[in-house]
Amino acid sequence: MTMAAPESTWMAWRGRRIHIARAGAPDAPVRAILVHGGGGYSGALWPLAGLVVGDPEIDVQVLAPDLPLYGYTEEPAPGTVRYQDWIDLLCDIVTAERARDDRPIILFGASMGGMLAYEVAHRTGQVDAVLATCLLDTADPLVRRAVARHPVLGRISAGALRAISPVLGSVRLPIHWLSDMSAMSNDPGLSRLCAADPRGGGARVPLGFLSSWLNYRHTAPEHYRGAPVTLVAPAADTWTPPELSLRFLHRISGKTTAVLLEGCGHYPIEEPGLTQLEEAGLQVLRDVLEQDARR
């Protein structure tokens, strides 16, 4: 379905103005927070918002924050941004939304946003469901090799990056120098568009952020205590193959579901996978609303 143009709202957070795109009725029975990854932002994810909303009979309020370094968020010191900032910001957004009212919250994480959604759900305990296209655990050497643009970058140890971070951590490089943005989509035109977008794949990120991400230790899946996790993995993803995410999903303690999106690349736009994504999102919405009704 087609989503209405979002409204731009702003949140003051640690000296920054965080841009959050919003759409849908403020009193909708459920909220969906879209979480982008590296090279993404609210505008890039917005075409998928309609799939999160799903059936017109299910009214959903959608929020899509731009994490520091990306989108329209105002970042006064980009060289200092670290992965922990993303975790903390998303936790604070979820906490603020929960303090506003008790409507259910669903996190939908795309690409590296999947692990962000997973971590935030565990840390806050205030999320009702997690939907993720990827679960990329950077502790896994196979994941590090997959996300790097060049094989040699994938073989650089997280420890080596940690060692150079105090000296070169504020140095910013184009994200497409570090990751193979040409694999963003199986449509070369869309991949080029994403890589050239100055608010997304064309942005520059500090080496310290890369180091903090590769060295971050997410909650071990065996210790996860968050909401049910549904993996909607693009089956034809040549950048981060679904097997990488399934390895992590199968270790999660708690309820999980896996759906492979047929024919879809990393940015899922192809059929029949796109319809499968919509159906999976609708099922998560129904489950959350049913659970909320029983409370």
From TrEMBL:
Superkingdom in the source lineage: Bacteria
GO molecular function: hydrolase activity
Keywords: Hydrolase
Domain AB hydrolase-1: 33-272
Keyword Hydrolase attached: yes
Protein name: Alpha/beta hydrolase
Gene source species: Mycolicibacterium diernhoferi
